[in-house]
Amino acid sequence: MDGKALLKEHFHITSDRMVNGRYYESEGLLYSIVDVTNMEQEYLLELHQMSQHLMRQGDRKVAVFIPAVSGAFLITEDKKDVVVLGSAQVHSRSEATGKKLARFHRRGRTLTAEMKATNQLGLWRERWEREMDQLEKSISGLIKQGVDGEFAKMMIDSFPYYMGLAENAIQYVVDTEMDEALGRTDYGTVCHQSFHAKFWADRDFIHHPFDWVYDHPARDIAEWIRSSYWDGSLLYRSNFKQFLQEYQQQERLSPFSWRLIYARLLFPAHYFDCSRTYFSSPSLQGKKEKEEQLEKYMKNTTEYEHFLASFYELAFVPVNRLKIPNVTWLK
Fold first, then answer.
1. pTM for the predicted model, two decimal places
2. How does pLDDT run across 71-107, given as a tens digit for each residue?
3. Domains, the chain, with CATH or none
């Protein structure tokens, strides 16, 4: 059954046109159909709770779960489980990403429902250790098979360096959790699985629950900075300073937050993501793109180290007054 027919039969929603190839429009509202066949009920419930909470807090762009005429949120059609999300078409004025993100985090921080399935709060170290173990197994497989191709050579050559960087990041998180007291804003909120510089570039962008996790706001801030660095827009356009200033005009960052942001930048997630995508990609074109991406990362290792070494200075963080430690080997 196609999407329009599903909306008509189960939700009594008639749609005449698509928007951005993803949304069905009907009477000024936008609807999206999400296949949730392999998702746990607890995970879906938590996303529903998050979206309802943000809507009640005044987020006009959030997509919420829509019940069918039967009252159920989950519909089974053609052996697939699906849910429908609905949102208003809000044409907002252009607004700075830092300011929007801070407001989004502030709304999410008042969520009182307990999050388990979506929770990543305080779990970075465990997740990073799993990623390191998985990559180590992949590298061991390459070595056993014999080096084959440029990507394999680059992976084997770069692996010890990036594992060392990852271990530094894990230790930085451990030290932060031991040394720093939590500030007023250092609590869980609605975050994104992978926030990046262009995430909200479209003024009409809808806040979609399936993009979310429950975590510390440092996650989104660090991932915005990382993506901006690697797409080349971070320093040359003063985006870095502006983004942080705009965020802090709404929400001040504590020493604990700064250290988590730094730890996340120290962990080479871009390297792990590139490697994981390469090994899982079924297409030669996809593998070639990741090979070129890895080559870029390796060529810019020294420059990224310089960025990490000067991060706090660039961000105007008074490290001496706040007693924030540097990673000395980067100097």
1. 0.93
2. 999 998 888 999 999 998 776 666 788 999 999 999 9
3. 3-90 (3.30.200.20), 124-330 (3.90.1200)
